[in-house]
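ok so i was messing around last nite and threw this chain in just to see what happens. nothing serious, just curious
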Amino acid sequence: MNKKVSIILSTYNEALEIIETINKIAKFIPDAEIILVDDNSTDGTLEKARSINNPNLICYSRKKRGLASAYLVGLINSTGDIVGWLDSNMSSVVKHYPQMINKLDEADIVVLSRYIEGSKDERNRFRVIVSYFLNKFSKLILRSKIHDISSGLHVMKREVLLSEIPIAFGHGEFFMEFLSRLEKKGHKIIEMPYTHPGDIEGNSKSFPNLYTFTRLGFFYILRLFRTIFKRQ
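result:
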């Protein structure tokens, strides 16, 4: 598929991984537009990104924080025919994106999935178990056929946005709502297996401690029911 690709990165204190992530995008998706939205990192993430000599890299700096709103900023400022999102500390999965992009010849959106044959999750056991059951519960409530509806790692055709714009507030739950709405409108969604890497620093931004993880899980559940009620 010979079309312009935009990849959105949202960052907050990703200095350990950001250079490798950007360089891998440039390697596996040559000429991709890379839009980085930094939420006031304090560890030099933005400075490291700006030090990279890549004319296709565009950086935005914000004072506020929030995964969903950062995604929307990137989406608004992207110019690609294909738009994707990648977790900034998961450079190991970039190698899958060329195949994902090629699969857009037969689909509207392609998502990396932890819950289909050939996939694996290398995070700590607690996170693996909780994520698995939260995803199963989400599928049941939303009556979805998507195996990993909470993944977030994706590429999509820009014209998908003509029928549905993500409601960008909250954390990763916004994408779950977005996928569910696309599915109900008949868009073709393909899942591809991948290995979810272990967290570089032990825990992700969503699991710095049990309290934060539980709090985010609570908002995921609230968003599920909000999605159902708005659909009716």
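not much to say yet. The domain at 5-231 is CATH 3.90.550.10 (Spore Coat Polysaccharide Biosynthesis Protein SpsA; Chain A).
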